[in-house]
Amino acid sequence: MPRFTVHIRDEWLAVPAGTPPTPSGGSDKKLSNVMSPTFAVRRCQGLGLLDSDDTIDDVLEDNDFVELAIEGDTMSPDFIPYEPGVSHLLHVQYICLDGNSLTSTDLVNLGRGLYKIKLTMEAEKKVVKSRELLDTIVKENKVVYGITTGFGKFARTVIPVSKLKELQENLVRSHSAGVGNPLSPERTRMLLALRINVLAKGYSGISLETLHAMVEAFNASCLSFVPEKGTVGASGDLAPLSHLALGLMGEGKMWSPKSGWADAKYVLEAHGLKPVSLRPKEGLALINGTQMITSLGAEAVERAQAIAQQADIIAALTLEVLKGTTKAFDSESHRFCDRVQDAYTMRCCPQVHGVTNDTIKFVKNIINTEINSATDNPMVFAERGETISGGNFHGEYPAKALDFLAIAVHELASISERRIERLCNPSLSELPAFLVNEGGLNSGFMIAHCTAAALVSENKVLCHPSSVDSLSTSAATEDHVSMGGWAARKALRVIEHVEQVLAIELLAACQGIEFLRPLRTTTPLEKVYELVRSLVKPWIKDRFMSPDIEAVHRLLIDQKVWAVAKPYIDKYQTEYIPESRPISPTAFSLDPPASPRKRVRHE
Question: Catalytic site residue 145?
Fold first, then answer.
């Protein structure tokens, strides 16, 4: 029997097709591709009915709007249909997590569903020893924060052993207080994978059974509903991580490729998984840490690195179209030239782009350190037989780094927008106004430039540091916080805007080339031009522009511009840049002359 889904007031309802009833509830959509388009609507949770006697009168009211999502039909943009037999992993490969060696690149690939997870044997041994110490503490009825006491302001309240399980469940439920749209499946995978990695260090007292349950949920892509708003970044990312844990407990909502959004309990059951049953301290172990900040930060730094590489290529193409010189600091460039020098946006790219690249490297080091840091409280040290309350949960490091990242990467868009102006302005480019023939009849890139300007202006507000703010919470117990969650989210927004501005510049530069034919630029830049033209035709007259911008934006996200140019860059570096050059007597390095710096982890 066909099964359909109805979306009513943000609630998904199962719709089995039955014997021909009459369409009800104000739905007048004709479904020409469905035989007997009649439905029996039942209120449900997940894939099961709440009450078999529920009728449409219990679900709909007069004039309710009903959205039908039917297999084979066009879906609502926020509805993910069930695709039988399709996994988020086309090729099953694994990354082994040990809590010490995960990188931001690995984490982003885990988010994309390119890998499943395994734990190393050494990590499992550490987890077991840590849990044994914690079980001893409970057995001996010792008073230890977060294990046998309340939390925050209630740290002095001792909890009876008989209620320790309830204590942990209450913690997760009460702290699941986030708001806003859910993280995407990709970002939720990153969040779950990172929490698994941190717990695998063996300093949180998690049981191996619970950690294995998390790994199984990740590998099945059973992902909790995690609202994007609600963390202040100390004590860790409590709200989002609580929502992550809530789904693992079989409560709240979950998503999987098999079920879409449904009740967590049903999603787990559909994949043969059982809800996690929390033991003493496990609720706290699941929710106390900086993994929301850090997982989003990992995506931010990887995307920043990708767009920074491609920004150099796009700037080079614009420089060619504007007939700029590559000898900006060579006195020879002033001979036989009607311009003494090019504008800053052309000759200062190495300085502006350079500091952005250095900042990305700096931030990436901090994010990779945080990825492999134990950020729980209290920490369980099995080898010393003790627990220690500390402050590793504070997100100041990644928060400050991501604020810095947003400021630095924004400059790529700031200087790009000025180059777009030079491309579009005939008095500066010696090209047709707004890069189109029959100006007046056609407007060309006029408003595309306005879009770039709008994005740059929006970024200026988003670059205000989030981490300079702090609000005291938890009855002044948590009296200084990092606001790192917002730092991470706005860094991603800034980077997306930068990608879009550079997409517009790349389109404009390719359009400029059309007016310079039959002249040709360098081979790698011609390859970039051909890549763009494989998706976007030249502008002969005005047309709908947004799809062109989106197509080139996708090229940049997928790093295809970099992939086209990289072989030529590698060859140039090999053939023309000597391995060692004389060092200027005025130059100095900030790095020590010895071996590479060791990564310091918070443990």
Answer: yes
